[in-house]
Specification:
By secondary structure, the protein is of the alpha/beta class. 45% of the residues lie in helices and 13% in strands. The strands form two sheets. The chain has a five-stranded parallel beta sheet, with helices on both faces. Strands 5-6 form a two-stranded antiparallel sheet. Helix 1 packs across helix 9. The radius of gyration is 18 Å and the shape is globular. It binds cytidine-5'-triphosphate and guanosine-5'-diphosphate.
């Protein structure tokens, strides 16, 4: 039986979830599942799921919990035997509880980034809609301005990334995410260094680790170190219903 590792990343829009998830996937070699990307793929391919969620995603509304869980949980069940990282799911407490019913999570990473930093980042965020590849004109610019590195297709900016829209999204994120974080948290909030160095078990039952800062490159070493500790001490496991379910 392999050691499996189930983790999720949370944070407001622009906090670096996608950027950090890709680093985790590359370093740890787990399956990365972005629920937003999954939904957009379904919409582009006009799948049954895509048709169901199109109206919500195009209006930047949250897809209802029952539908979101119905789409995501079977995907995760197909990944039995794999370690994975979720970005964008669970988004609400109902989704987190549904996830608990099928699986015991090992770690939840929460990114705590100042509003001004979020605002700067998303106003400079450019996206390749077909692949979900994300650029930032200062941090990770495309090789050719306005063009995707892989396909050469044009990049776009989301209307949602305008400062006015960001403020509303942030408020909404806080309301919805708080109960999810409470579910996963048992610990005090730690500094990045403390969070990364605490041995497993010393945080009571808590699996939520919060990282704060303005630069992904400065947060990343702490996350990387936490993952090394967690993964090396992970017991043999399969995806089993959580005891809290
Ligand atoms: N659990 C989720 C995840 C995503 N979505 C839908 O998918 C869209 C895109 O999700 P995502 O890529 O995660 O991006 P945002 O949440 O919009 O923003 P960010 O990546 O900046 O956090 C959301 O606007 C929402 O309509 C949803 O309803 N429920
Ligand atoms: N300037 C700067 N931009 C960053 C940093 N980390 C991520 N970004 C960019 O900020 C934007 C938001 O990051 P993203 O990973 O998409 O965040 P998400 O919305 O939480 O998934 C993207 O354009 C990233 O390229 C950073 O440390 N500094």
């Amino acid at each position: 039986m392999a050691k499996l590792f189930r983790t999720a990343i949370m944070g407001p829009p622009g906090s670096g979830k996608g950027t950090i998830s890709k680093r985790i996937a590359q370093n740890v070699g787990l399956q990365y599942l972005s629920s937003g990307h999954f939904l957009r793929e379904g919409i582009a391919a006009n799948t049954d799921a895509g048709v169901l969620v199109k109206g919500y995603v195009e209006r930047s509304m949250l897809v209802p919990d029952h539908l979101m869980s119905r789409l995501m949980l079977p995907r995760l069940e197909q990944l039995t035997g794999h370690s994975w990282l979720l970005d964008g799911f669970p988004r609400t407490i109902a989704q987190a509880k549904a996830l608990n019913d099928i699986c015991q999570m090992d770690l939840v990473i929460s990114l705590n980034i100042p509003f001004e930093t979020l605002r700067e980042r998303v106003s400079d965020r450019w996206i390749h809609p077909a692949s979900g590849r994300v650029y930032n004109m200062g941090f990770n610019p495309p090789q050719v301005q306005g063009r995707d590195d892989v396909t050469g297709e044009p990049l776009i900016q989301h209307a949602d990334d305008r400062p006015e829209a960001l403020q509303a999204r942030l408020r909404h994120y806080k309301d919805v995410a708080k109960p999810v974080m409470n579910l996963y948290k048992k610990s005090v909030l730690l500094s990045n260094a403390e969070a990364a160095s605490k041995p497993l078990g010393s945080l009571s039952q808590g699996i939520l680790y919060q990282f704060s800062g303005t630069d992904t490159d400065r947060i990343w070493p702490y996350i990387s170190s936490l993952l090394s500790t967690k993964i090396s001490t992970q017991p043999l496991d399969t995806c089993q219903p959580s005891a809290q379910a």
